[in-house]
Design brief:
The protein has ten helices and two strands, in the order αααααααααββα. By secondary structure, the chain is mainly alpha-helical. It has one domain (about 5-160, about 170-200). A two-stranded antiparallel ribbon has the order 1-2. A hairpin with a 2-residue loop joins β1 and β2 (about 160). The chain is flat and about 55 Å long. The two termini are about 25 Å apart.
Amino acid sequence: MDRETGFIKGFFYKNPILVGIIGIGPAVAAAYTLKNGIAICVIMLVLFVATGIFSYFVGDLLPDKLSIPSYVVFSAGMLVPAYMLCEKIVPGAVDALGVFAPLMAVNTMIISRSDSYRDMKSLKETAADTFGNIAGFATTVLIVSAVRELLAFGTLLEHPIAGIKPAENLRLPFAGYIILGIMAAVLRKFRRHIRKKREERIGL
């Protein structure tokens, strides 16, 4: 697997939220403003990349029973630098996320993907998969948070948008699930279209 294929696979064909249905908690519970969405992405970037690196270099040295607890402890230890970076980019966003900020240390996307990296032999393959997954996660979260802020508050990054009639109930988790469902359906249809075109091209 080359770097491009690995990145596209993680971003598109195996999008962690829309295809793998993992790591959806922050997207449905806390991504109801774009500011929150950006904060979620920054924190996830730090935790996911750091834990992935830890797993790649140290994972083989850990007993099977201790691998996942080790990833959780390491991920939790990375919360402080993640918060510091987040506060510099979007001040006040960590407080706005509330309990969902620390809960990201045990996000299923981090734990499941990190455990798979211990078996990867190529650093390029691991890096491509890491950044493909985080790009897919971030793109999804940012779209969900932007749409929910527009519909729930009539704003984008807290700036009023003319012509939008707010429906504040859409900040609730059910709206996140609905938007994710629509996005997953669109992605699935697009993937089928690409597969059909590829089959036609090779004469299947």
